[in-house]
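@channel anyone free to eyeball this complex?
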Amino acid sequence: MKKIHIVLILIVAAAIGVVMVALGNSDSYASFAQAIENPSRTYHVAGKLELNEPMVYDPHTEANLFTFTMVDNDGKKCRVALHKPRPQDFERSEQIVVIGQMENDVFQAKDILTKCPSKYNDAPTQTVEL
Amino acid sequence: MNSSDFLNEQLWPGQLGNVLILLALCSAVFGAIAHFRSTIYNLDSTWKTWGRIAMLVHSSSVFGIVALLFGIMLTRQFEYYYVWKHTNTALPQSYIFAAFWEGQEGSFLLWAFWHAVIGLVFLHKAFRSNSGVIATLLLVQGFLMTMLLGRIVYLPDLGIDFNIGSFPFGLTREHPTLMNAPFTKLPDYLLNLDGRGLNPALQNYWMTIHPPTLFLGFALTTIPFGFVIQALIRRDFSSWFRNALPWAFLGVGVLGAGILMGGAWAYEALSFGGFWVWDPVENASLVPWLLLTAGAHMLLIPKKTKIVLTLAFVFLILGFITVLYSTFLTRSGVLGDASVHSFTDLGLTGQLLLFLFFFMALPVYLVLPKRQRFVYLIASITLLAFGFSSQFSSISNALWTLFGLLSFGLGIFSLNQRINPNTPSLEENVWSRDFWMLMGALVLTVSALHLTVETSKPVINKLTGTSMAVGDVAAYNAVQWWFGLLLSIGMGVVLYLMYGKKTVQGLAKELGRVALVAVALTLVSFSLYPNMKVMPDALLLLGGWFALASGFLFVAKFIKKHPLAAGGGLAHAGFGLLMVGIVISMGQQQNVSKNQNEINLKALNEEFSNNEHVMLMKGDSVRMANYTLVFANDTLNGSFAEYQIDYYSHSDGKNEKKFSLNPRIILSPSMGNVAEPATRHFVTHDVFTHISYVDLENLKRKSAGIAAPEYEEPQHFELKIGDTVYSSNAYIVVEGIASDPRNAQSETDPNNLNLNLYPTFTVRDLQGNIDTVKPAFLIQGLSLQTIPDTAKGNGLVIEVKKINPKTSTIEVEMQRKKYQNQDDFIIMKAVIFPWIKLLWAGCFLIAIGSLMAVAERFNKNGQA
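replying in thread with the prediction:
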């Protein structure tokens, strides 16, 4: 076998390796129900903010804790403890994704993604969908 | 549409724009055909002439469209939706460029503009023999022009209803989202109409310079792809290397500079807290660069062996295809939640897919033997038609994926069949420049593959029904640092394999010297930052220093003999410096704002011990690392909330104000408020300050001279005995209802009722204060008196409003008295990035080195 073939085999192996790593170590989007079932796993939960329940942020006590209630896409409500400062304009966010894990009925989030409606309000109806 | 019923409307720019778009489309298609003809029949001069005329007409039309759109934006003709959406009267003219390419239509035009410019360059006699390149360029332009068509195809009987492109000159009053708004019916609506304006977060010079550079880079990936297509048409597989090479490296330099500007923007003006966060949109421009760089290096290999030829084709095709793929990712809305800055979905998904598939299939089609081409064409069209008509069903998705993989294999197989079997096979000497270059290119490709798979997870989810989330920064770093290390070492070694054959001993001696320098530099860095991790930090640092030392020693040696050949050495040194900069500035970054107030709510794992954000009260000072920070002032200044943070140093026992930083929040009621960090640059480090959260209402109140409310917003609960609620950072438990022993003497007579109830609560706040609160609920005859009670530690006031004996619940109001100036605070984050200047210097060297290589090659090609 030529040396170049050995190199190529190694490269193909590395390529398969990185694809496996990328796909295998992936966090998943999930609902709160799934997060409750696997409390030790990190999930991304998408949903909406529940405005009727209190949003608590008291930086005088703890600047890196913000709690609120979120309704996931299945309609399940859950209290979320975000271990970061309250995002600016949080009450206006339309879509939220929290990243973290469930513990004692509270979703402990290490990160959050929010989407404001204004950026997306002028999309015409999409006619071709994937 | 000749005369308008609306006052002050000017319709001619739109009508002219429409004509020019059609003209640009037709001339692109015709010009592409003419140039393809003259590529095939090399001597036919009629087609050549027609092709040149078409190119001229096309470029002029594109310039015309660009000029028209600029014109109506500069004069704020709000009757046009694009102008209305992206500008307003208040927008300074200097941001018109930014507004121009903020939207999809404008950025498509920007891309098309660069193609039009490059097309004109190719009419010059030095390049005009490359008719296949111009043909490819015009074909791409044809697709880009359809993105601007804005035609609706509506055939309800066939279930067809879609739009082709988005017309940049559409009228505001005819836009689907506004046509039903009452103001669009008024004849004089323009008199009072102001635009929506440019998002304030984009009103900066980065938005002016980053997109044009990036899109020029994208446009330059079309050129090597064009050379590939030309080679496939002419069945001349190896002689194109020389002509394509300078263009490929020009693309490497410009696209690299564009990506770098994006990183600099993210670092300077966005709240990412770093220059690179592996955002899908960032990756989408990095992947084409990696592949283009791999392809460009293949072109440097003089011995055109089978594998070199094949890889050159594959890399340069993929370099262009991934530009189209990233266009699809960022503009179709498929990324959705995964990225902070993808475009608004214009409903062009199907069209973007066609754009992508066409250019994926074109090289495969061309490489196939004539008989197989027909079969391939029919198969592709059938599959496409099936996919679109079945609304992208899972079967068609599976078939498409399968077909794509088959095409890739078939293409490579056919190419290998066609390459002259006499082509020499790669030199077996492992210590040859060619061999190392090949390996480097392959490493770049694996890196690109990893980024592509990670970034494509939303697409994979759609195809397979999984629900994978795109990885975080750590997930990317964990894999990508290996490539950084391998590439650094390879880049250092390969320079010493240039110019003539060397003995292994001689090589070992030279490389040994470089390695010694690298080890010394690493040890110095290690002594400066002793807490550095060995893996990956110190190891990658060693690699970086190695590439740097090798590059500089190489340049020093050859700069006299081959001044321009030093470009490669500089670029490699730059990559080394980039790695060093990344390791030190990111790995050794110091959170100055470590929260001193450690309340461990939950002993969760490391990831949750987030204390990098700290609260500063106005006028207070907090000691952070070597500085004392004072939140000195906050002002409302037009559309900015500005905060002044003073940094004092306390060396020599006295406090001395060193500098102030003014991070701010850009206020936009319609587009959201965006924080903008402020950074103080020193040679050795940067101090970065970012506002995470403020009470903007408080600042607005203060500016208007309104006093802050004394109490926080009250909260209401309906509770049972034993219930626990959480309010104002305290857990409140309803313990029971104590009653006065003298109560209830005559329960039969309501007028004599004398009931003193004391619902009892335990308030346990997060600082550990526990207090019992007993608000009174007093019934005397028919009158009711409620007396609130206050928790001592927390200041929470509890009042029982109602007691419902039937449901055995109590209705409670809780509110907390505010501290003095409670709302005059900021939550901020301050980070020191050491030696981040090295990172920028590295990027700069890569760009300069690439451009020197381009100049050298154009020079050489011109002489030959």
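from a first look: Chain B has a mean pLDDT of 87.
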